[in-house]
Amino acid sequence: MLTFNISYILATRNRLPFLKITLEKLINELLADEEIIVINGNSNDGTSSYLKQLYIDKKIHCYINEPDQNQAHAWNKGMLLANGKFIKKIMDDDIFCFASIRKCKNWMIEHPEINICISNTLQTNLQYSEQINKASRLSYFLQWQKDETSCFTFSDVYILIRKEALSFTGLYDTQFRMIDWEFSLRCSFLKAKIGYYTGYNSLTVDTPGNITSLSTRRVLKYEAMIAKVKYGYPGDDAEISIWSNLKIALGLKLQWVQKNASFKNNNNSSALHEYTDLESIYNKLYNILEHENQKTDFDFIC
């Protein structure tokens, strides 16, 4: 029996500076009908003891501390443990508007046929956090809705999924690195019932050591080839790859700087500590996202 409305699931490994900010915000915003589940990939930066204390203090509902095969494996654990009617992924380094997420949840309760709700998003880079970009998949959603294309892609940063829908969509494919990319193609190809919220559930922050920045163009090209065969996806490079390629380029630049400075770290944990004003940066970003969602009335499309 599902005992919560929303399960917030979070997978992390050696990202404690970001994790503390994100979990503190989530804990402060949490409602009685919501739960927090954290999957810790056997971190060695103090994350394990931090989560243990949060659990003892009853600030989080469940946590696991064990190695993962990959990020899909970690996120799948979280989804299987979820006791909520709806599942919301929380990335340890991104910004979320919980009021917007709950607005989507309420809309999905009113529309029980909807499996997934996605939204627009904002984007930035930690190093240049004053530069905020807007991103939308609405035009591709509308093309898909009109059967002009068999599938389309969207990020899971802003996705809210009904847990019961997992029996139809399946979990994340553990052979993929860009797991949300494949998941979105699969869900849309299967004609899952998807709704679109024109507001902003999230603000994506590119940071040292995240999955996309550590990916390579070769990996993305290989995964794109698989998707083309499985789902007949032609690609829409202008809208998708420009942000991924930017993050890859910045990630490669960071690796070059670290290498030439004889700088080594574990999962970029040392790089994270270089941002002494991290909390201040994130507070500003939370305010930006909140302000953006107050500008106008947004709509749901299905």
Structural class: alpha/beta
> Count of helices?
11
- How far from one another are the termini? 28 Å
Approximately how much helix is present in the residues?
40-55%
Average residue pLDDT: 88
The CATH superfamily label reads Spore Coat Polysaccharide Biosynthesis Protein SpsA, Chain A
User: Segments where pLDDT lies below 50 for 5+ residues?
Assistant: 238-243, 245-270
Shape: globular
The name of the CATH architecture is: Alpha-Beta Complex
Largest sheet: 10 strands, mixed
Report the C-alpha radius of gyration, rounded.
Answer: 18 Å
CATH fold description: Spore Coat Polysaccharide Biosynthesis Protein SpsA, Chain A
Classified by CATH, the class is Alpha Beta
- Strand percentage: 15-25%
Whole-number total of structural domains? 1
Q: What is the β-strand count? A: 10
Q: Which series of helices and strands comes N to C?
A: EHEHEHEEHEEHEHHEHHHHE
